[in-house]
Amino acid sequence: MLVYSIFTILLLLISRSPLFRFLSLLFFGSVISGILTGKSLDFFDLETNVNSFFSALIIFMCFWGFNVKPALTSMKFDISEGNYKLIKAIFFLSCIALAVNMYVVFNSIISILANGLSVSEFKNAGYGKEFVANNFQYLITYISFVIGPLSFLCLAAHFYFLIIANRKMAFLGFIGSLNIAALPLIYFARSGIVAFVLLYLSMLLFVYEYLSAAGKKKVKFNVLLAMVPLFFIFLLISMNRFENYPYLNDESIISNPILYSIFDYFSQWLVNGNYLLSNFDTSKVMYASNFTYIPEKLLSPFGVSFAEIQSLRELHFGSQANSFNGLPALLVYDFSYFISILIVLLFMFFVRFSLKKKECILTKLFWLSVMLPIPLFFFQGLFTVFGFYNLAVLYVAFFSILLRLRWYKP
Fold it and tell me: Does the pTM exceed 0.85?
């Protein structure tokens, strides 16, 4: 853990922006979680230290792109009436998807109660997927998965309207953005809540200094109002799923299984990722397995298929197939060491270019909403594996072009 501790100190020392500091503290929290749950790495083992250094380097490069302070005041804030109507349409569609998701969540709760299941059985034993597939397949496929990703644009627009002090539109954008949390809740997964909270807080830090004094005061209250119920739901799911958590480490300072499961959620990658890197060789390269969602959807009508990612993980990861293995290890298994570094460098330069480029703040926030999940979820793996996220990236690209075509008010 010494390598990661030194890395954390370095991150905080070179920090130039609140967003970068937030990412650094998130990494620090992951390391502390590892210490509290008794995870340890052999300090005297050369291979372990090399793996730790490589992992820290990859994460550092992912973070570094966000270590800038763009001058938002020099950018255009007004958008055309046509674009304003376009944003309203996005809000409306996303709210429809939210209503569908909450309807399915409600029925999932009814199913659990009616069948005497635990939340853990519903999610992990296959009951949840079977129940949703049998009763709501078309709703989930054609509304939740297709329209739901607009929630990333809603979140970006929410902060845009906060900046220009349009509270009504900011509220509608916030409601539409809740799909990020709601969709995984259909299966009682905690990941959606974690994703929404981390993404919301990081984007808030990006725009916070550009809010008015009244806006800052209002947003603090609203954040507290929104985060309390989300935290309660997260805790409730954790209590129901992990009250008999079987993976407690004997060296752990934490003995409560529910609390242990929460800290383990953010830190298991430290050991798992190091283990996978130690066992990697070129015969195990999975050729961008975490990036095939869109290519597969486009090419499947022509008879082109890709290897199923879960099968690849079970083949190469063994017992770690269903664990959080961290972004560095998954990149290496997808591309090898050298190409992983190149890809992260390209990502870093793209982020810095996007944040420094002088353009409409709404377009910048659109891109920020889909760039941030990559570093934010370093402890989990690659966010690109989720079809929901892949569609969000496509939507951001498409609507960014539309904004340019309709352009801004003179």
Answer: yes
